[in-house]
Design brief:
Structural class: alpha+beta
Largest sheet: 7 strands, antiparallel
Distance between the termini: 58 Å
Shape: elongated
Order of helices and strands: EEHHEEEEEHHHHHHH
Number of strands: 7
Number of helices: 9
Strand order of the largest sheet: 1-2-3-4-5-6-7
Number of domains: 2
Strand content: 15-25%
Length: 294
């Protein structure tokens, strides 16, 4: 391994679950804000839900440290009955291990050696299938790269800025809710936004595309919105946002009230609660999009 001028080591624990990260690398330029990078890392993993797969975690970490040439990366993930450990040296897979119920079940080293647990051949286990899956997993681990930011998706952050008059804090769980309710309300008033929502039972409507966007976008750290919308569209979004925020501000629990409004708009758009939709429309006193010439 070549020499490096930067090292970051973090261990995060939550409810008997743990993730340890060791990253070493060289700065690509002299303008890197290390404190911001480490702050982003902490925000991602201090309240990590441990539901993401191991490969996604690796991709997130490489994205956070994208301004460095990676020389060494080690990630240890521990849950109740499972442990995983991966090591990269000079951006190449060096080793990977898995444990289950305290027993090592799989190990790979860069010598191309594969080790399975001693019980692999017992019972009616499909050995070839297991080996094939592990080889495919190793191929994935070898090729994991950082995420690429699609600038076209910044439109969501731009709309959020106009609607709420503030930049979105993607690490705040409330932001995801507010972003989804915002889109439902704007769609309800005729703005053509291509986001599909689903609703199960009495839960609030959810757009998985927006959920995935927020989870992906926050890995890049601070959100910078540099989008320009047509003037009439911008005015329309600002007007709706201002009236909605004024309406919601009268409630003791503003987020719950926003969810209630968004859910009613969703139900109205799907042929339900038409009276509620009309009542909200009158109360908020917003003209339709066509009145703005959009």
């Amino acid at each position: 391994m070549e020499k490096y001028n930067y090292r970051c080591e973090r261990t995060y624990m939550k409810n008997n679950k743990m993730i340890k990260i060791v990253f070493c690398g060289n700065e690509k330029n002299n303008s890197i804000n290390k404190e911001k990078i480490e702050e982003t890392l902490d925000k991602c993993f201090l309240n990590f839900n441990y539901k993401e797969d191991f490969e996604t975690i690796i991709s997130w970490i490489r994205t956070i440290f994208r301004d460095f040439d990676e020389k060494y990366l080690e990630i240890k993930l521990s849950k109740t009955d499972m442990k995983k450990n991966v090591v990269y040296v000079d951006n190449k897979l060096q080793s990977y291990e898995e444990e289950k119920d305290g027993e090592k079940v799989f190990k790979y080293t860069d010598s191309k050696e594969l080790q399975f647990n001693k019980n692999l051949n017992e019972g009616e286990i499909d050995v070839l299938s297991i080996v094939s899956k592990k080889i495919e997993q190793l191929r994935t681990l070898k090729n994991i790269s950082q995420l690429k930011l699609n600038s076209s998706n910044n439109i969501l952050c731009g709309i959020y800025l106009l609607f709420y008059n503030e930049a979105p804090d993607l690490f705040d769980p409330k932001t995801l809710i507010k972003m989804q309710m915002m889109i439902i309300i704007l769609k309800g008033f005729g703005l053509d936004l291509d986001y599909d929502f689903v609703k199960a039972d009495r839960n609030m409507p959810k757009c998985y595309e927006i959920v995935n966007f927020v989870n992906r976008k926050k890995i890049f750290g601070e959100v910078k919105v540099n989008l320009t919308f047509p003037k009439k569209t911008s005015t329309f979004i600002k007007t709706i946002g201002r009236r909605i925020n004024e309406y919601v501000s009268k409630s003791d629990d503003q987020l719950d009230e926003l969810i209630r409004i968004g859910t009613n708009f969703y139900d109205s758009k799907n042929g339900k609660n038409d009276e509620v939709y009309a009542e909200l429309t009158r109360a908020i006193k917003i003209n339709k999009l066509s009145n703005f010439g959009c």
